[in-house]
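Morning F.,

Quick status update on the modeling queue. The single chain you submitted on Monday has been processed. Sequence for confirmation:
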Amino acid sequence: MRILNLYCGIGGNRKLWPEGHEITAVENDPDIAKIYQDFFPNDKVIVADAHQYLLDHFKEFDFIWSSPPCQSHSVVRFIAMNRIKRPQKPIFPDMKLYEEIIFLQNYYKGNYTVENVKGYYEPLVKPQVISKHYIWANFFINSLPSKSREHRSSIEVLEKRKGFNLKDIKIAKRKVLRNCVEPELGLHIFLEANREYKTLL
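Structure tokens below.
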């Protein structure tokens, strides 16, 4: 299959996907894109605005995964506005999330997944709730047991939880790992979208 992996980060969602597919990953941070490329040398990695890339290239792919930035929707960040020490400032929710959902619902013919965190408000488009994530997709996804995302843990615990060794890499490791989709969730949704591959594993 031709797969488009948008806002790919270091590739948490893609980590356990079956090999043998033509995967294009889009990431706007060149340092993060390089790390992804090192972990997945057979993927085509493009440094670009994922939102615009989707608009320009969606017809070229059989399956699309998108994980737009979640911070402006996060219930955790919303709660943090009331902290006594270092409270977060209010920000507008980034509506590119809903632009992509509505766009894919109406223009795209293949299977797609848009992943984000549980928000602090009632979703404007109803999602499926899978393992503490909001998932918008044009196929049904069976439930998956929820596991802790270990966000308050050490970098070493986060590395083990996500399955990435960043020991010799100079980046904001905690932030990158916290933004990383859990690999088992990525695999579960991939297989739900492409059920014929379940029989090959």
